[in-house]
Amino acid sequence: MPSPRTTLRRLPTRGSHDRRDLDAILDEGLVCHVGFVDGGLPVVVPTGFARDGDRLLLHGSRASRMMQALAGGADLCVTVTLLDGLVLARSAFHHSMNYRSAVLFGRARAIADSEAKWEALRRYVERLVPGRWDSLRAMNATEMAATAVVEFPIGEFSVKSRSGPPKDDAEDADFPVWAGVVPLRLEAAPPLQDPAQKAMPIPHHVSAWSPART
Ligand SMILES: Cc1cc2nc3c(=O)[nH]c(=O)nc-3n(C[C@H](O)[C@H](O)[C@H](O)COP(=O)(O)OP(=O)(O)OC[C@H]3O[C@@H](n4cnc5c(N)ncnc54)[C@H](O)[C@@H]3O)c2cc1C
């Protein structure tokens, strides 16, 4: 159900409050933008995230302003954007973009308990690169202490999307300029091994990585 602040006023037909639509965006997205007010002024900070059930997991340096705001319970607006194409119309006015985007409101809370924090970091890594955690050198106490982890419960949200060709004015239908869509997508290029490392086979969880991870 939309709340007053997640009710779409501009082009509401492009909106959704369906949790499945939200999860599809969150599970494909790698980067979110976290908006909060710092010292009376708005700031929007890009960062990585992962959905874990009904929460988003975010982490960062304990010294980071963003992590301190998140852990301190600041009011947040988190957005995730997937860009699907450039929409090239016959007129400048009707140029657009195809996209799927999500806006979430709420407050995060710090995960302080060390076991819960470890598990949250494991889940974070596994959501981003499934199958990787167990092959890593385990995090040590210094790294754990330097890392802040927060969870952002999924509650108040909206989804908006645009797809399909340009929506030109009918009288422009025969205007002689190419119109259509340039599709865009994120995809993995062949992995590049660290040159400082002895050559080794690329593990399946690396070679098979794709943005559609679930
Ligand atoms: C890649 C991309 C390109 C865009 N390009 C433009 C552009 O050039 N010009 C432009 O005006 N708009 C653009 N939009 C749409 C833009 O995100 C807003 O939806 C639009 O500007 C209306 O803003 P508003 O604050 O008036 O919306 P309102 O409808 O008043 O917003 C009310 C509520 O609706 C929800 N909402 C609004 N927009 C979104 C969204 N995108 N995703 C999820 N929930 C949303 C939020 O919960 C918000 O609080 C673009 C969106 C994307 C993702």
Task: Describe this protein's structure.
- The protein has 214 residues and is of the alpha+beta class.
- It is built from five helices and eleven strands.
- Strands 1, 2, 3, 6, 7, 10 and 11 form a seven-stranded antiparallel beta sheet that branches. It has a four-stranded antiparallel beta sheet with strand order 4-5-9-8, with helices on both faces.
- The chain is globular.
- The model has no long low-confidence stretch (mean pLDDT 96).
- Flavin-adenine dinucleotide (FAD) binds next to strand 6, strand 7 and strand 10.
- The site of flavin-adenine dinucleotide (FAD) has 15 residues, from strand 6, strand 7 and strand 10.
Identify the notable features of this structure and list them briefly.
single chain; 214 residues; four-stranded antiparallel sheet; 11 strands; binds flavin-adenine dinucleotide
